[in-house]
Amino acid sequence: MRNSQSDPKLPxxxxxxxxxxxxxxxxxxxxxxxxxxTPGAISRQIKSLENALGIQLFHRRHNAILLTDAGRQxxxxxxxxxxxxxxxxxxxxxxxxxxxxxxxxTIARRWLIPRLGSYLTENRNxxxxxxxxxxxxxxxxxxxxxxxxxxDEARFPSAFLLDRTVAVCSPLLLGRAVASINPExxxxxxVLLDTADAWSWRRWCNAADIAFRPNGGSITFDTDEAxxxxxxxxxxxxxxxxxxxxxxLREGQLIVLCPHINPIVGAYEISGxxxxxxxxxxxxxxxxxxxx
Length: 292
Fold this sequence. Notes:
- By secondary structure, the protein is α/β, with parallel strands linked by helices.
- The protein has a five-stranded mixed sheet with strand order 4-3-5-12-6. It has a three-stranded antiparallel sheet with strand order 10-7-11, sandwiched between helices. It has a two-stranded antiparallel sheet with strand order 1-2.
- The chain has three domains: 9-92, Winged helix-like DNA-binding domain superfamily/Winged helix DNA-binding domain (Arc Repressor Mutant, subunit A); 94-155 and 268-292, D-Maltodextrin-Binding Protein, domain 2 (3-Layer(aba) Sandwich), CATH 3.40.190; 166-262, D-Maltodextrin-Binding Protein, domain 2 (3-Layer(aba) Sandwich), CATH 3.40.190.
- It is built from twelve helices and twelve strands.
- It has helices at 16-25, 28-35, 39-53, 69-92, 105-112, 116-122, 171-174, 183-186, 199-208, 224-232, 246-250, 277-287, and strands at residues 58-61, 64-67, 97-103, 126-132, 143-149, 161-164, 166-169, 191-193, 218-220, 238-240, 255-257, 264-270.
- This is HTH-type transcriptional regulator TtuA.
- Pfam families: HTH_1, LysR_substrate.
């Protein structure tokens, strides 16, 4: 018979969802919002788990948490266990429904997917089908998320995400000069455009009270996703919504330049009336993420 004192004890199981979500989002604040708790409560849960294991799972940094090597290893087992429980729970639920959500590729990848765990936790009988507008869709969607341009917040009373644009670059591009650079000097560097008409850049320059003259040249892309990728490689100065580059900002892959300049350039919202109660509930869930 094995010595019971040598048998490892199970960790506090109630802390595992917080650990999994925090690992996915890299943010105590986002984890707290998903679980309807306070960031302090999430921090205490993770600390309780670390104390029970006797292992540090996260590196704490300013406004960010990053998994340690042990944390990454443990996450694999935790996610597998939670997925097994979730699948078992879903199999027991009657009347499963399918909902197709169509959205532009950048908002789907960079904003919606990191938050979907919250929706699925509250709607366990829903099977989601997420389709990108960039790839097209073969079926009629239940919900279509669209983007509209505009610089006046009052134009978007039903939007779940206002698109405020900031100038960003890779630290490889400017190094220590980031802190002292002024708006005019940015245009002496290559600028990255996500539309042919430079909509975001023109709104940013207008807010900075300067003319849009890209003296350092420009590179134009047909999606903001491609522009962000180019910015990450150090090709130039880009424009992006902080909400779409949360991970890159947390991890220092991108740096905001002249942060006081952040005009509204558009908004994301569901187009048209809600076709059914399920779509309306999804829209209400989206609106809980709107920043005040």
